[in-house]
Amino acid sequence: MSLFDAAAFQAETGVSRETLDRLAAYEATLRKWQPKINLVGPSTLPDAWRRHFLDSAQLFPLLPEGARVLVDLGSGAGFPGLVLAIMGVPEVHLVESDSRKCAFLREAARVAGAPVTVHNKRIEAVPPIAADVVTARALAPLNDLLNWAHPFLQDRGAALFPKGQNVADELTDTTKYWKMRIERFDSRTDPTGTILRVSGIARV
């Protein structure tokens, strides 16, 4: 597989030079902190622009029209929430229970000039934030994600969840407990991956 670098990311996404510079500052901070804190899988670091930055950025065109407030659950190293903040989502809340990862998120946001709010708490302990969109990446099965996302979502809000090859099983299980509108989009970074856009979420 050919090297996917910052220039390839810009060609794929069409971000401005300024946005790319801010993302590059984030990427450099990730590389600096990775030896101290296991922020991403070590094997994915050489391909970070594809595996993490493009994987997050592909959600941007799928955001609900006019979305202003985004809550990212289990933010970890900031994917996708911090990337989406740098790309222009006005108000982003990053929820992460690990205090060391929160320290990284604050530093990465500082160097990237991204005005995010970091919540160093378990998801269940965060007071509901009226969100237009909720995101989570590689966090939990869909049913758990909906349990966590539901208190944050506005009536017309939506959730964006990248999912792997077991998505059909997760959807089958989830429909026992939830009514929802599901839209599926092919992942641009994982041939077996699917991005779910979930709206109209209500308990059965």
TrEMBL record:
Record-stated family: Belongs to the methyltransferase superfamily. RNA methyltransferase RsmG family.
Keyword line: Cytoplasm, Methyltransferase, rRNA processing, S-adenosyl-L-methionine, Transferase
Enzyme class label: transferase
Organism the protein comes from: Azospirillum brasilense
Entry's localization field: Cytoplasm
Entry keyword annotation includes Methyltransferase: yes
Signal peptide residues on this chain, from the entry's feature table: none
Protein name (Swiss-Prot/TrEMBL): Ribosomal RNA small subunit methyltransferase G
GO cellular component, one term: cytosol
HAMAP family in alphabetical order: 16SrRNA_methyltr_G (MF_00074)
Domain of life: Bacteria
GO MF annotation terms: rRNA (guanine-N7-)-methyltransferase activity
Positions annotated to bind S-adenosyl-L-methionine: 74, 79, 123-124, 137
Residue intervals passing through the bilayer: none
Keyword RNA-binding: no
Role summary: Specifically methylates the N7 position of guanine in position 527 of 16S rRNA.
EC number, UniProt record: 2.1.1.170
Reactions it catalyzes: guanosine(527) in 16S rRNA + S-adenosyl-L-methionine = N(7)-methylguanosine(527) in 16S rRNA + S-adenosyl-L-homocysteine
One Pfam family named in its UniProt record: GidB
